[in-house]
Design goal:
Number of domains: 2
Strand content: 15-25%
CATH superfamily of the largest domain: TPP-binding domain
Distance between the termini: 21 Å
Bound molecules: 2'-O-acetyl adenosine-5-diphosphoribose
Number of strands: 9
Low-confidence stretches: 1-26
């Protein structure tokens, strides 16, 4: 956790135009804020990212564990992969960045919507309520036979029967795999078209459609990331550093 002094120092060192000041007409309160988060926001909670050194996709072939074809080829292996991720997720705790976004939602007078690519539940556990999981949720399971979606915190196997329809072999993680349609896209595009501030946090900008949200966003755009992402030049403003430090500082700036 960053110290109060570290946050104060980070706030003082933020460069570029400040979103809460027009310079002419006094403070601006953003009315509709959309925040996109990626694996980087959960990195300091101990959940690995995908593309950093030692990231998940440096150790696993995503074609094996994150595609419908991989699941069809070897469901046991895919279940094993998500069982291990579920254990890691349950052992992790939200960090200062997750808490800062929940505080922003609670205290900001306008709308705040968090759209996350993360399948962990750390935003919820920190207190975020207006939240869309565009890549699904690790702690849910879906039945291909009956369509039921249930909270799931234990291991799941190829042979596990669906608790709703009792059919075995139909359960799959409730996550979006490559070549599948992300969730909630209509609501997300509507929010982007109406927002006056878009902030992307801890995402590499490798995966579409999320990587293009910065181009869809109607308002001011800010990147908060450890380092410049692939889409860095699309943002009007950027702050680089660890999320647990720069997100609370940015939220403090928005809340005045
Ligand atoms: P990536 O692993 O591609 O990118 C993580 C980003 O977080 C990188 O730009 C890092 O520099 C940054 N980062 C790392 N540690 C950080 C920290 N402490 N503070 C701030 N930033 C940090 O993860 P995503 O962009 O989320 O999709 O990946 C997008 C999608 O690709 C995932 O949702 C997943 C994956 O394949 C599916 O599985 C469908």
């Amino acid at each position: 956790m960053p110290t109060t002094a570290a946050i104060r120092e980070m706030r003082a060192s933020l460069s570029g135009p400040t979103p809460d000041e027009t310079g002419a007409a006094g403070p601006v309160t953003y009315r509709r804020i959309v925040i996109l988060t990626g694996a980087g926001i959960s990195a300091e909670s101990g959940l690995g990212t995908f593309r950093d050194k030692d990231g998940l996709w440096t150790r696993f072939d995503l074609e094996d564990v994150a595609t419908p074809e991989g699941f069809a080829r070897n469901p046991a292996f895919v279940h094993e992969f998500y069982n291990a991720r579920r254990v890691n997720c349950l052992a992790a705790s939200p960090n200062a960045a997750h808490y800062a976004l929940a505080e922003l939602e609670a205290r900001h007078p306008g709308d705040v919507l968090v759209v996350t690519q993360n399948v962990d539940d750390l935003h919820e556990r920190a207190g975020s309520q207006r939240l869309l999981h565009m890549h699904g949720e690790l702690l849910k399971i879906r039945c291909n036979a009956c369509g039921a979606i249930r909270r799931w915190t234990t291991d799941c196997f190829e042979t596990t029967p669906c608790p709703s329809c009792l059919v075995a072999g139909g359960l799959r993680p409730h996550v979006v795999w490559f070549r599948e349609m992300p969730m909630h896209m209509e609501r997300i595009y509507a929010a982007l078209a109406a927002c006056d501030l878009f902030v992307a946090i801890g995402t590499s900008g490798h995966v579409y459609p999320a990587a293009n949200f910065v181009a869809e966003a109607a308002g001011h755009t800010v990147e908060l990331n450890l380092e410049p992402s692939d889409r860095a030049d699309m943002f009007a403003e950027a702050v680089h550093g660890p999320a647990s430090l720069i997100v609370p500082a940015f939220v403090a700036r928005l809340l005045g």
